[in-house]
Design goal:
Elements lengths: L12 H9 L8 H9 L4 E4 L7 H10 L3 E5 L3 H13 L4 E4 L5 H12 L5 E4 L1 H4 L2 H9 L2 E6 L22 H4 L5 E5 L4 H10 L6 E4 L7 E7 L3 H12 L5 E4 L3 H13 L4 E4 L5 H13 L4 E4 L14 E4 L6 H8 L9 E7 L1 H12 L5 H19 L4 H8 L11 H4 L3 E4 L1 H17 L6 H9 L4 H5 L16 H13 L3 E4 L4 E4 L3 H5 L6 E4 L14
Parallel strand pairs: 1-6, 1-7, 2-4, 2-5, 3-4, 5-6, 8-13, 9-11, 9-12, 10-11, 12-13
Antiparallel strand pairs: 14-17, 15-16
Helix pairs in contact: 2-3, 14-15, 14-21, 18-19, 19-21
Bound molecules: adenosine-5'-diphosphate and zinc ion.
Adenosine-5'-diphosphate binds next to helix 3.
InterPro entries: DEAD/DEAH_box_helicase_dom (IPR011545), DNA_helicase_ATP-dep_RecQ (IPR004589), DNA_helicase_ATP-dep_RecQ_bac (IPR006293), Helicase_ATP-bd (IPR014001), Helicase_C-like (IPR001650), HRDC-like_sf (IPR010997), HRDC_dom (IPR002121), HRDC_dom_sf (IPR044876)
Keywords: ATP-binding, DNA damage, DNA recombination, DNA repair, DNA-binding, Helicase, Hydrolase, Isomerase, Metal-binding, Nucleotide-binding, Zinc
Family: Belongs to the helicase family. RecQ subfamily.
């Protein structure tokens, strides 16, 4: 049982790990973090998803006198978390807005009677003075701030209620605090540290490398067909998650998979709560199910044997990509993170940023996030190296990602870039016209289409000057110029316009290096254990 045996010693961390959780040994930094907290120190923990953050506060809460208070934004998961702990004999409860007054009173009584090891608390509850007074009357062993990146206004998951957590230390100066997150660029790390008053705390930064995940980013052609190939060829009968940007494409993709004999369930915020809960429960319980979802799915999902995470649309940031792909392979066995990415993704996301609410600083932030994601897509170096570098960590080429397995070549694309930019320039300046990538490419290829004739584009001097590349290759050029900021899109139809930097290419002051897609995309995961 997790309740106090005797004094210290018999309830040391390792024996709690064995007796309560049934695990052999600590992983990574767990032991050092737990010891530090048990001794009353504050900690800031950066550990990737699946790294084992929960034990870092659950065990100290069991070892120290009093109740450990866990602040978590994942209200929907609290009941599950508490149930799972109770099965292990841990005395756990939660307080959030889903409860009726009677249920809340029961938990409060247990807390005051010293009968709780762990109390999960929604951040908005902690802001209530009544909750603070309740905690004043209880014996608190520690505060754990889960998903601590929610305090970051720079990040993708900001929760205003988290800002108030900076006051924990003022009100309860003797209670140790531990903040935990799996999202950790240097900027987020620094922001968590200042906003939560954790400058004096010990910082534990685990490696973000997930060696058993094979990262692959492929050119999007027929995304659903490509996905089907991946599932049939490499992950038949295995559990996985497919992420799509919109609810409509979630529905369509799930139906497409079902039509093709794959058991797939949709998950998005447009479904009613009961269907969502049922689909999530089936995914956790059954083997070999595929969930097709928007990013609403997965926060806090702990299913160890997710064998693949596929993205049919470009994630908005590297943090998001890392977190979503991180749901694969928590059991340490080989898993695939697969992303199909194309020109349309860039067009669409740039447009979403343009039309997003918020001031220009906010839009700049979104654009910076997108640029980093695009750089990861277009890199010619190891994906893992690039990913780790984004999180401020270094690594060696992994030998297991797509770029390691079939290295893309970079080629001098200066002349094609000049041709393309010059076509856009002529349309803008000679004709006062804006067109999307399709028409511009048709012009370069010298295609005699109806639309070409109608606009007399066959009379432009750039008509037919680009026959050395195929339609697909030109789309790759456009995509990469967009990614490099040498070209931009505008308006509802994704029309192409020039940027300041375009002038440098047109004026021959700048070379353009492009990535050539490998002939045959990398396949078949090599076994890699951690
Ligand atoms: P995180 O919150 O960092 O994503 P969790 O705390 O949910 O990760 O842990 C991920 C999984 O690893 C869980 O199934 C957990 O029980 C397991 N785990 C954590 N620590 C250990 C350990 N020392 N030994 C064995 N399994 C562990
Ligand atoms: Zn690699």
């Amino acid at each position: 049982m997790a309740s106090p045996d005797t004094a210290h010693g018999t309830r040391d961390a390792l024996s709690v790990l064995h007796r309560v959780f049934g695990y052999e040994s600590f992983r990574g930094e767990q032991q050092r973090i737990i010891d530090h907290l048990v001794e009353g120190g504050d900690a800031l923990v950066l550990m990737p998803t699946g790294g084992g953050k929960s034990l870092c506060y659950q065990i100290p809460a069991l070892v120290r006198e009093g109740t450990g208070v866990v602040i978590s934004p994942l209200i929907a998961l609290m009941q599950d978390q508490v149930d799972a702990l109770r099965v292990l004999g841990v005395r756990a409860g939660f307080l959030n807005s889903t409860q009726d007054p009677e249920q809340r009173r029961e938990v409060e009584t247990a807390l005051l009677a010293g009968e709780l090891d762990l109390l999960y608390l929604a951040p908005e509850r902690l802001r209530l003075e009544s909750t603070a007074r309740l905690l004043d009357r209880a014996a608190i062993s520690l505060f754990a701030i889960d998903e601590a990146h929610c305090v970051s206004q720079w990040g993708h998951d900001f929760r205003p209620d988290y800002l108030a957590l900076s006051e924990l230390h003022e009100r309860w100066p003797d209670v140790p605090r531990i903040a935990l997150t799996a999202t950790a660029t240097k900027a987020t790390h620094a922001e968590i540290s200042t906003r939560l008053n954790l400058e004096q705390a010990r910082h534990f930064v685990a490696s973000f490398d997930r060696p058993n995940i094979q990262y692959r980013i492929v050119a999007k052609r027929e995304p659903r067909k490509q996905l089907l190939e991946l599932l049939r060829g490499e992950h038949a009968g295995e559990s996985g998650i497919v992420y799509c940007l919109s609810r409509a494409s979630v529905e369509k993709t799930a139906q497409f998979l079902v039509d093709n004999g794959i058991e797939a369930l949709p998950y998005h915020a447009g479904l009613d709560a009961a269907t969502r809960a049922a689909n999530q429960a089936r995914f956790l319980r059954e083997d070999g199910l595929v969930v097709v979802a928007t990013i609403a799915f997965g926060m806090g999902i702990d299913k160890p044997d997710v064998r693949f995470v596929a993205h049919l649309d470009l994630p908005k940031s590297v943090e998001g990509y890392y977190q979503e792909t991180g749901r694969a392979g928590r059991d340490g066995l080989p898993s695939t993170a697969w992303l199909a990415y194309g020109l349309q993704d860039v067009v669409q996301q740039r447009k979403m940023i343009d039309t997003s609410e918020g001031d220009s600083a906010h839009k700049r932030r979104l654009a910076t996030h997108l640029d980093a994601m695009l750089a990861l897509c277009e890199t010619v170096q190891c994906r893992r190296v690039q990913l780790l570098a984004y999180f401020g960590q270094s690594g060696e080429p992994c030998g297991n990602c797509d770029t390691c397995l079939s290295p893309p070549q970079s080629w001098d694309g200066t002349i094609p870039a000049q041709k393309l930019l010059s076509a856009v320039y002529r349309l803008l300046n000679e004709r006062r016209q804006k067109f999307g990538a399709g028409q511009v490419i048709d012009i370069l290829l010298g295609k005699e289409t109806e639309k070409i004739r109608q606009h007399r584009h066959d009379q432009l001097s750039v008509f037919g000057i680009g026959t050395e590349l195929s339609d697909g290759e030109w789309r790759g050029v456009v995509r990469q110029l967009l990614a490099q900021g040498l070209l931009a899109v505008e308006g509802d139809y994704g029309t192409l316009v020039l940027t300041e930097a375009s002038g440098d290419v047109l004026g021959r002051r700048r070379e353009v290096m492009l990535r050539r897609e490998p002939e045959r995309p990398a396949k078949a995961a090599k076994p890699a254990k951690r």
